[in-house]
Structure formats: C-alpha cells, structure tokens
User: Fold this.
Amino acid sequence: MAPRGGRLTDMADIQPAVILVRPQLGQNIGKAARAMYNFGLTDLRLVAPRDGWPNPDAGPSAAGALLLIDQATVYETVEEAVANCTHVYATTVRDRDMPKPVVTPREAAAQMASMIDVGERPGVLFGPERSGLTNDDIALADTVLTVPVNPDYGSLNLAQAVILMSYEFFQHKADVPAYLPAHPEGLADKEELVGLMEHLEQVLTKKGYFRSEGRQGTQRLALRNILQNAEFASQDVRTLRGVVKSLGRTRED
Amino acid sequence: MAPRGGRLTDMADIQPAVILVRPQLGQNIGKAARAMYNFGLTDLRLVAPRDGWPNPDAGPSAAGALLLIDQATVYETVEEAVANCTHVYATTVRDRDMPKPVVTPREAAAQMASMIDVGERPGVLFGPERSGLTNDDIALADTVLTVPVNPDYGSLNLAQAVILMSYEFFQHKADVPAYLPAHPEGLADKEELVGLMEHLEQVLTKKGYFRSEGRQGTQRLALRNILQNAEFASQDVRTLRGVVKSLGRTRED
Assistant:
C-alpha cells in the first residue's frame, strides 16, 4: 500500500513507540523492554525516568533485551517524546468523563496496524508505576487505551500493561496460524482406516467378541464410530495394526 | 445453554484451571496468581511445587490475590491435577513433531469458552520456570498451546504466559465494548455546528479574513470542512462559540 500524501516512508521500520512516562524503577523499565521485545517491538522511549538514565537496574531485568535498553531514547517532556507520532494512546483506566475515545488493547492494535499501513506513526503512553498518567499527559493523547480487567481486582503492573499491548500488536504482524493440526503429514485416509477396522473385526471374531448374531451389527458400528472419531494419522493406523496383529496371535500362529 | 448429557453443572462456577507443574519459586506462583486474578480466574492448581506448600514467598508477590494462594490445590502428579478436566492444554513451544494440534492463546480461549458453555472443564498446564513441560506431561494433554513470539527472542516467563492466557479467556467473558466514543453525551448536531460556522464566518468577515471575493468560497469551504471533521461535542461547540465571540470583540463592543 502506498503511503498517503506521497511521503516516502520506510514502512518496514515503523512500529508503535512504547513511551514510559516518569518510570520509577529501573527494574520495571527492563521488564517492559523484555515484554516489548518478546513481540518484536524495539522503539522504547523514556520520559524523565526518576532515577536518571542509564540505570544499572534495567539491564539485568531485561533478560536479553539489552538492545532496547541501549537504544532507548530519553526525553524531558511527554511533548518531546511524542513529537514524531501522528496518533497517541494513553494507557489508563476507563473514565466516563474523559473527552477521548476509549479502546481495548485489541482495538488499539487493529487501529495501529492500519495506521502503520499508510505510513502513520502511533505511540503509546504508559504512566509511572504508582500514580499513572496525569490529566496533562492524557490531554496530549488522541485515544485512551484501557485493558478490561476483573472489576473486583484490577492490579496490572507496568510490564503487564506493556506486554498485553505488545502481544496484541504482534497478532497483526505475526503470520502464525491460530490452529495447526496434530498430524502435519495428514490424517489416515479411509482405506487405511477401513483396513484397520476389518483387521480388528477379524481378530475379534476369532476371539469370540461377537457372541450374539443379533448384536454383532451394533457392536461393529460402535467400534467403527470410535475408530472413525479418533482422527488417526497414517502412522497411528500402522501402529494400531501392529497392536491388533499382536493381540490376535494364538500359540499356533 | 443446557449442559450436554443432562448433567446438572453449575456452569457459573466453571472456569479454566491454571495448573503450574513443578513450579520452582514461590514468588513466581504469586505472580501467576496475580496475573490470573486480574482476569477473573481463581482455580489455581500446583503439581509438586519444588519448595513445598504453603510457600511464604508466594503471598507478597500475589499483590492482593491472596485468595488464590490460600485456595490453591496441591497434587503430587499431573494426572491427579487434571483428573476432573475434560480437555487439557499444554503450554509449550511449537514443535513440528508433536502429535497434537497446536493453538494460539486466542484460539484456545475461544475453544475453552465453547467447552465451558456446554459444561466441560478445560485446564491449562504450565511447566517449570527453566525446563518447561516434559514429554510425559505433554502426553497427558489434548492440545498444545503456544504463544507466538518474536522468533529472534522469545523469552516469556511463567507469569507472562499465564497472563496472556488469562487475558484472552477474559475477552470472552468480559462485556466490554472494544470502542467507546469520546462524547457519551453525543456529538454536536448539525444545527449547533452550522451556528458555530456562521458565527466564525461573521467575525472573520468583520476582521477582513476574506479579502478576495473570488477566494472567499474556497476559504469558507476549507474552514467548514475543518470544523466538520473535528467531531465536536455539544459542549465543545459552546466553548468555541465563546472563543469566537471573544476574538470578535473590538474596542467598541
């Protein structure tokens, strides 16, 4: 898709900026970096980190996402941190009186993916650990992002909020099927399945499983349904043929 | 929906069981409890926790989700922990050779919600912090649950895996709209908007903004489109009328 307005943007490089506003503990900055990087996000921005920057506590808790810690950009104000963003989300609790649209992380992720498709640059603000974003911070945002939580509890920490946003965004980027079948080589075909059924019935007949002529049809049908529903792979059928063969052996075989 | 087979199940009570298999640190059990409770899950089961149970490290990191720590059930084996489950998910990395279907957390959440609707009891296994679930653990599961992550990194910890599963399940339970408009009282109607436009145009005419007769139509149209696109609420229009009125004042007014 061509960027709007003829801008030449290297869109492969665009991703949501994760902006930690006045974060308190270096450890939590590291955890947020780790959360982001699990889902491919690398644009970490810090606004006035309480304990300065760099912070020696950030690296160890980043668990390998050191790249993000090294490349994090630091700003004095939220205004500077969002300067190149075209749309800003403020992560906070839902407030009925907020004169902003409110979206879930899933909706925000869908919106951000669409924005990035046309060369726009979204950013997401996360507030300090205890107090959260102020009204002045939120006034700089276009949209409020609220994670729906258990109304009786609701105790998401900073890294948890970051991971849920990052995870949702990654769902739009990752080319991962929701479902993979158990047998990539394919299920057994019906010829294999019928072969197993007939083999089993032959052995069971020999062993006297089908005692009453009248009930034999019902018993066979029940067995065939059980085997049919099991969704065996070809290899499963071969394994079970061996089992049946072994169970069918008599001393004379 | 009636439960299948005429079972009388109090379905309000059914929720996915979160089963931590041989968890190592009490702190991580607490974090997992906190992650669950944020999304309304309370059925925490522990299989052979390394440091025994109760563990004094679990409570402090549960951050208020103490109920889950107090009510957690403890088992010696995975078999016992899943005994009352009808479908078990094993959380692990995607392995092409695994003879089980593989699903994402989102797909698993949708499946579990459907199962619970008909009175079935799903459970989700999470392995020990370092080593993850063994093949013997996974053999007890029906389905593998894999979180799609950054292929270059992929360092989800136990509590992060638990929170993503819990979050996805909650999306099926929580009655939360994906989007709330900025103005619950409604946008300004067109009469209010046209009133603002005409007021602004009147003041601008007085101030000499429309210099050229020829361009006046274009200028007016541009302004009307700007105001139209802004999606003002009624209160916004009243505020802006005040602004325009104030800007229009001359010494003689």
User: Anything to note?
Assistant: The CA atoms of residues 109 and 169 of chain B lie 5 Å apart. Confidence is low (pLDDT under 50) at residues 1-11 of chain B. The longest strand of chain B covers residues 17-21. Residues 190-248 of chain B form one domain.
